């Protein structure tokens, strides 16, 4: 283990000596290249951070919207149940009510499905951006 560490130390010393022996213009060129690379990475990181925050905010907004929509749906379902109980006596009135209930429920399911799909898409995009950030 000690020999391995000594060998690594010798390699690093060799690299340092090589850098010291380089002409000044090559050192400056290498420094400029490293500074440019660092600046690019910092810019990419900042962009990724902004995108991640934006996606997080959008996800929270959609979750709140979904919760309020679900609440409204529950309220409307209760109202429909009450209306059905009141109109229970007449069978002619029940058939249109059942049809309207089916249409209403289908609309609710479609709305919830589209919101879930949008949330899944945002989560996937967020995951991919995090992978890109980790890669950078």
Can you put this structure into words, describing what you see?
One of its GO terms (biological process) is toll-like receptor 3 signaling pathway. This is TNIP2 protein. Keywords: Coiled coil. It comes from Falcunculus frontatus (Eastern shriketit). By secondary structure, the protein is mainly alpha-helical. The chain has one domain (1-87, 98-135). 94% of the residues lie in helices and 0% in strands. It has helices spanning 2-21, 24-86, 91-135. Helix 2 (24-86) runs antiparallel to helix 3. The relative contact order is 0.09. The model has no long low-confidence stretch (mean pLDDT 82).
Short synopsis of the structure:
Keywords: Coiled coil. The chain has helices at residues 2-21, 24-86, 91-135.
